[in-house]
Structure formats: structure tokens, C-alpha cells
Design a protein that fits this description.
Layout: E1 24-25, E2 30-31, E3 42-43, E4 50-56, E5 73-81, E6 90-99, E7 101-107, E8 110-113, E9 123-126, E10 137-141, E11 148-156, E12 164-169, E13 171-176, H1 180-199
Parallel strand pairs: 2-6, 7-12, 8-13
Antiparallel strand pairs: 1-3, 4-5, 5-6, 7-9, 10-11, 11-13
Length: 202
């Protein structure tokens, strides 16, 4: 009996997976660049597949897509880490913004002389991307024909350029007084012509 081998007992152990967790997500907020935003960096102890989906804020969940947004607006990101051998799947929701790009429109000064037609009104743009031109920009000056200075104002049609936050800098239109020296010369020439005409013998 003393030499009898010990009996073998089979023990089954059930190891529960740990709850999945996302330890950090890099900044998602961005400024409009004309290109889709970069996918955020997700840190997790799990080796499960990471999937990032996006939708417009306040839209239905069935609109989630893996295609990253481009245009300015408010969005929601749904970040999912699939389960692996040690961790359960986990999902985290993060709201973020794509801000409009800052653009400045500066109206160029212009002028004309009293009695003449107005000069062409123009403006200079700073900050616009090559792949997203501006639309529906209007420019006009405050009415007035007398000599003096008048504001030139640029504006946009409401909702025309949602990817840009536009700052408008007004310009000055100058109506110059008519040069009286030019007027006197013309009058003198006219009088001389009349006198010569009157002295021509019949």
C-alpha cells in the first residue's frame, strides 16, 4: 500500500476574459483642410482589431461609416476594440469638431474723378485652399457721386462657404474732385473758337 501511486484528479479551470478597455484616444478635433481627417490613435491593452466609425452629430446610428469626414461640422466617433483571447470587446463614443478654416477677404481701395464712371471693385483673399474656392462673394460700395470717401463692402451669400470662417475687411472708394484747371482750359478754348468764328467775314 505504501508503494501505491497517488490517484490523478482532473481539474477544469474556466478563465474569464477581462473587461475590454480603451486607455486613451488622441485628439480628434481638427480644422478644415480639404482632406479627410486622420484616424485617431487608440491605446488599449487588447490586441483586438480597432475600428473607428463616424457620423454627423445628432444623426441616426445607422449612418455610421468608416469613411472619415472632411467638411467642417460637428461629428461623433464610435471607437470599437474587438475581443481577443484576454479581453472582451469594448466601444467608446467621442464627439469632435472640424472647425472652418480662417480666411480673410480684404477689399482693395479704388477711386475715380467726379463725373466719371466708377472704377472696378476688387478684393484680395488670404487663406483659401486651392481645392475649395470661394463662392457667391459680392462687393459693392456705399452709393454717392459727390467728391469724398465711401466704404466698399464685401459679403457672402448666407451658407455659401461653410468650410471657411471669413473675416471681411472693408475698403475705401474715393471720388476725387474735378480739377478746375482742366475745366478753365476747356472753357477758354471754347471761347476762343467762338470769337474766331464770329470774326470770319461774310
Amino acid at each position: 500500500a505504501g508503494n501505491q501511486a497517488p490517484s490523478e484528479t482532473e481539474i477544469q479551470l474556466k478563465v474569464e476574459k477581462a473587461a475590454g478597455k480603451i486607455t486613451s484616444v488622441s485628439e480628434i478635433d481638427a480644422t478644415y483642410t480639404g482632406e479627410p481627417i486622420s484616424q485617431p490613435t487608440v491605446k488599449t491593452p487588447s490586441e483586438g482589431q480597432v475600428t473607428v466609425e463616424y457620423k454627423a452629430k445628432d444623426s441616426d446610428d445607422d449612418t455610421y461609416t468608416t469613411e472619415a469626414p472632411t467638411n467642417a461640422g460637428s461629428y461623433v466617433a464610435r471607437i470599437t476594440v474587438a475581443e481577443d483571447d484576454d479581453y472582451e470587446a469594448v466601444t467608446e463614443i467621442k464627439e469632435f469638431e472640424i472647425s472652418p478654416k480662417q480666411v480673410t477677404i480684404t477689399v482693395n481701395p479704388a477711386s475715380s474723378t467726379f463725373g466719371q464712371a466708377d472704377a472696378e471693385l476688387t478684393y484680395t483673399v488670404d487663406g483659401v485652399l486651392d481645392n475649395t474656392p470661394l463662392n457667391d462673394i459680392a462687393i459693392e460700395r456705399v452709393p454717392g457721386e459727390n467728391a469724398g470717401e465711401y466704404d466698399i463692402i464685401a459679403s457672402q451669400k448666407e451658407g455659401s462657404n461653410p468650410n471657411y470662417a471669413i473675416t471681411f475687411v472693408k475698403g475705401t472708394y474715393t471720388v476725387k474732385p474735378l480739377d478746375l484747371a482742366d475745366v478753365n482750359v476747356n472753357v477758354s478754348l471754347d471761347k476762343a473758337l467762338i470769337m474766331r468764328t464770329a470774326q470770319v467775314p461774310e
